[in-house]
Amino acid sequence: MSSPVTTHSRANTIAAGVFLICLGFLFYTNWWWPGILLAIAVSTSIKDYLRGRIYDMVLSIAIFGGLFAFFYFNADMTVAVPVLLTLAGIFLIVRELYFRKPRTSEDRTEDVSQQISDESHHD
Fold first, then answer.
1. Is-contact 8 110, C-beta < 8 A?
2. What confidence score (pLDDT) does residue 98 get?
3. Those residues with Cβ within 8 angstroms of residue 29's Cβ, 6 or more apart along the chain or in another chain
């Protein structure tokens, strides 16, 4: 894993902006399916890259890009999608159990800030 390019909240904001741009493109072209899969892939991958989570970025591109390709080329989904999703799930579990980096003070600070934000929205 590489180091984060920016903070978690900034990465989320940039990814949301990219997703809105993609949605604008989809409205303009009226190419909703399977175009929405590319919009999700692009915005998720950018967020993962900005957070320094290169493995997650590759996984996002593989899952959503693979699904896009299958739908775009009308491939048989009965085998490909379950295999793709199962492999992605295994990857996430193995990565979390065996390759997780220790939490930094920045991670803990963002968790506390998020809790405070969540509590203020509930009032």
1. yes
2. 76
3. 35
